Amino acid sequence: MSNPAAVPAPPATDPSFTPPSLGRRFGALVIDWVLCLLASNLFADPLRDGWPPVLLLVAEYGFFLGLFAQTPGMFVTRIRCLAWADGGRLGPARALLRGLLLVLVVPALLMDGHRRGLHDRLTGAVVVDAPRTT
Asked: Which of 133, 28, 15, 9 is nearest to 81 (CA)?
């Protein structure tokens, strides 16, 4: 028999929803950015060519958020990115769009009370605490 209490309410319908700190979100982004700089160094010079790490970041978001709901940086900082309405995964297309909007920087700075940036609101996403694994 399943335990209904084990399934968390979607963030949009949970009045007790508290978003993770901006520090954890920024920390995850820094980790992902460093990984993209290191990876792009294998086929380009990130100091001379600025676009390869940016494109890798967008691809990383599309792949990892779309399939696993968190990037490597989000895994380290224990946060996840889920669908606002139902708490499910975004899927690759919405995750890729979120990554594209994120690299524009401005949407991420315009946040609502749930710390959802414009890039989150346009893609129906929200960043939440990741459950602790035992």
From this structure: 28
Radius of gyration of the chain (CA): 15
- Per domain, the residue ranges of the chain are 20-129
User: In whole angstroms, how far apart are CA 46 and each of 42, 55, 73, 98?
Assistant: 10, 11, 20, 23
Distances in Å between the alpha carbon of 23 and those of 61, 77, 96?
Answer: 19, 9, 23
Token readout for 28 is: 């995850």
The pLDDT of residue 56 is above 60: yes
pTM of the model: 0.84
What average pLDDT does this structure show over 120-134?
86
- Rounded CA separation 85/112 (Å): 16
